[in-house]
Amino acid sequence: MNSETQYEDSVSTLVLENIKNKLINAFRESGQHAAASCSSNNSYSLVTKDIQANEELRRAKIDGAITWLRTELLEMRSQDRQLAKTLLDLNTEIQRLRREHESSSSDKKPKANNNDPETSFHGGETDEDQSFIQMN
Fold it and tell me: Which of helix, strand or coil describes residue 111?
């Protein structure tokens, strides 16, 4: 694992932990506000237990969601790397085929022979120029 990947992992972890803490604080504040509105001790105790149970359930859901996000991000990173490798391999293959084509094209061109009147007539013209002359 290179340093860039480690950096990305730590940044992703920090961002997800920050989101988690914000959500937990938001739920905690709403739970405390609801508990403060209860008047009797007995009902307050029941409401507090209910709020705590709901908060634990919410935390579990948040943890599950964060775990899912982390898994998805890691999978996306893996797919990104596979795609980058595929693109690099394709680029290498294209370059190889291009060089192969250029070398085969230069091998097929006739060598200029100054003593041959037919090749000396065409001089330094390209294959395209020669085909144009032949057509006209």
Answer: coil
Contact yes or no for 51/35 (Cβ under 8 A): yes
Place 136 in a pLDDT band, splitting at 50, 70 and 90: very low
User: How many whole angstroms separate alpha carbon 59 and alpha carbon 95?
Assistant: 53
Residue with tokens 């032949």, as numbered in its chain: 134
Q: Which residue carries 């291009």 as its tokens?
A: 98
Residues whose CB falls within 8 Å of the CB of residue 113, separated by 6 or more in sequence, listed in order: 119, 120
pTM for this prediction: 0.43
Helix then strand count (H, E) for the chain reads 4, 0
Measured CA angle at 57 (ends 54, 58), to 5 deg: 85
